[in-house]
Fold this protein.
Amino acid sequence: MQYDYWLNRWKKGEIGFHQNEINPYLRQYWQELHLSHGSEVLVPLCGKSHDMLWLQEKKYSVLGIELSSTAVQAFFKENGYSAHHVARGKFDHFEASGISILCGNFFNLNKDDLINVRAVYDRASLIALPSEIRKRYVRHLLHILPPAARILLITLDYPQSEMMGPPFAVSPSEVEALYQKHAEIRLLTQIDVLAQNPHFQERGLSRLQESVFLLTLN
């Protein structure tokens, strides 16, 4: 999963993928999951995303998983939390005010780690991974999630030949191929966003679409 690549980007502060604002699709579509307050939400490859704060404010329990200790420590420090830290199995576990982050390798997660998870918020996980790793990521996620868990998935799609990822292009047809045997797939919205992203135009893109999916596992 390009471990050194991501660790080095966090160490160097090369984190243009980090959003300082709450993702608007999270605000608009989270209610479609019909999730009870207090439910645990998994945020894979969470970085120091402010979206975890929004979920916490909406009275959900947040469980992040992140490879970089730099990102994890920055999240708690920058938001004024003094996190409790313990080593737990293959992870360093940080927790404060209803937000827990496991620092370590996503592929070391097991079913026991996610036993209370009822939903997943995936804004920057699937699109952060190259094609061969995406397949492995989805297989592992489906293996460890409890039955009937729901996933709010946000993807980008563009001609992959026009730009090297990350973020990588993930088309709706790929989402269907990855998940259709294991989940009900509902496309919530699909928007052309190239005009709102001049930095992607500068990188040579001729098309850029964002899609939001609600997946309900069988």
Remarks:
- The domain at 3-13+20-217 is CATH 3.40.50.150 (Rossmann fold).
